[in-house]
Amino acid sequence: MKKYRVIEWATGVVGSAALKRIIEHPQLELAGVKVYSDEKDGRDAGELVGLPATGVAATKDVDAILATDADCVIYCPMPWSLDEMCRILESGKHVITPCPYWFPYKQNPEVAAQIGKACRAGGVNLHASGCNPGGIAERFPLTFTGWCNRIDRITITEYGDCRDYESEPVIREVMNLGKTPQAAKGNPVQAILANSWYEPLDMIAEGLGCEIIDYQSSNDYILANQDIETAAGIIEKGTIALNRNRHVARTREGTEIIEEQIWFMDDLEQNRLESKLDIPRDSGWRIRIEGDVNLIFDVQVDADTQKERTTQGIQTTGFHCVNAVPLVCESPDPGIKTYLDLELIAGRMGTHSER
What we know:
This protein has eleven helices and 15 strands. The protein has helices at about 15-25, 45-50, 60-65, 80-90, 110-120, 140-145, 170-175, 180-185, 190-210, 305-325, 325-330, and strands at about 5-10, 30-35, 60, 70-75, 95, 125-130, 150-160, 210-225, 230, 235, 240-250, 255-265, 285-290, 295-300, 335. β9 (about 230) and β10 form a beta hairpin. The protein folds into two domains: about 5-130 and about 325-335, Rossmann fold, CATH 3.40.50; about 140-300, 2-Layer Sandwich (Dihydrodipicolinate Reductase, domain 2), CATH 3.30.360. The strands form three sheets. The chain has a seven-stranded parallel beta sheet, sandwiched between helices. It has a six-stranded mixed beta sheet with strand order 8-11-12-7-13-14. It is an alpha/beta fold and about 350 residues long. α1 packs across α10.
């Protein structure tokens, strides 16, 4: 069975999960690790994720990584760089990333063209994958629509108790948790986030053969009524402790597609919040399809503690990216590859195969 040489680019919470999966995947060989801190520079990749030594040392040197012989790069930095992505592609390495661009053709046509040009120059592919977006937001809903006839509405909701999420930049800059409403309103990430969430809406519409005629987005905040201690620091009284993002697309065919995220810094009782929102379930995801067949699918990480659920939920993003490597590397016609272009991405436990 063919093996693929893979570079892990960035070792934050998602990148570390991806690195662990690269090391343990029976079809992959770790070729290199790109890190950003002096503390990680030069350390063995296995040591970074609590595994035995691999013989591969992490490096901060971008030029050295780009010169490394590899088939694919799992690209996980936050924030990401489009120019960096294109440089990797032009070097002849496929890119799989949990960052945008999941389906950029409508929201970011110039970016799609730039990525496509880089893919053709390097003879490789780019695939944006992960969990949500990257699976929950588009792959799973589209799969379940195969059971349906008339579809009036598709709603995908993420419920996230974020108290154990350690990435302060994501918590405060992406999710706006811990900001004042005034600061959140002026946060330029909001527009970027809305644009990113429209991409899964576009992919679902494309999969259904629908034309989107209108987009709407909204943010509703609930403030903390006291200081709340979290893994990303103190969420101060009077700052945002619950953020509900909602992104809606209406199609010419009458189907409404909704992506929403409810991120909060409390348990379901919400006693530390100034008011309460109806949250029907613990952290996880709910996919609801309404029409002449009505379906609800709940996806939840089964763990003993909220911290373990948070950890495993983050790991799904990295694992899903890595498990896509063989499909992305073998997909013909260099370019952007979405879920509409690839076969089923599955885990790989062994090396035996009938084909």
